[in-house]
Structures are given as C-alpha cells and as structure tokens.
Amino acid sequence: MSALMNEFSQADIIVSVSPSYWADIPGQFKAFIDRCTPWCNTHEPHKAIPAGKKGYAIALRTGPGMKECERIFSSIEHFYGHLEIECCGHLGLCSVECKDALKGRMDEIEAFCRLI
Length: 116
Prior knowledge:
Elements: H1 2-10, E1 13-19, H2 27-35, E2 54-60, H3 67-83, E3 86-93, H4 106-115
C-alpha cells in the first residue's frame, strides 16, 4: 500500500477505471479502497497525499443502461472525496462485451482523454 500511495502522491491526475460487477465496483477495487483508510480524511491520525490532485472515473459494463455506471461513479467519487481528490469528470461505456465494441466510440473516448 505504501508503494501504491506513493504513486498517488507523485501523480497530478488519478484515473480510476472499473468494470461493473453487479452494478458496482468489483470486490478487488473495494478492498483497495478499504486499505486506503489510513490516508482518508476521516481517519485520525491520518496520513495524507498532497493536495491539488484531480481525479477521473471510467466505468465499463456489458449492459445497455447508464444507471449502473452512475453507481460506479458514485463509489469512486466517494473514495476520491476521502482522499481530497477533486473529481473532474467521468465516462461511462455501456454495451462493452469486448474491445471491438469500443471502435464506434473512439470520438467519445478521445474527447474524454482531451478533457484529462
């Protein structure tokens, strides 16, 4: 965790990407978030990463609806909030069964990348 949080400390921008597992982040991502508790602003005493970080969230799901992507964004934004990372944008990609499903979405993906 120290090595990962050192990466967070050195980065100006954090991009979190999550698939949809039952309409939320996967357990592995949740376990990572739980292990970040010592760096969260609600944990006393707490370690901290330097201020001024910007964060972005990307959600991928196989189903057609954005509702599940919104739940993923909410989980990531909640995590960012406790690390005092400003969430500056998100991208939800639905109906993604394989990488070929993204071919028709390249303009949207590239526009999001330019935002970052």
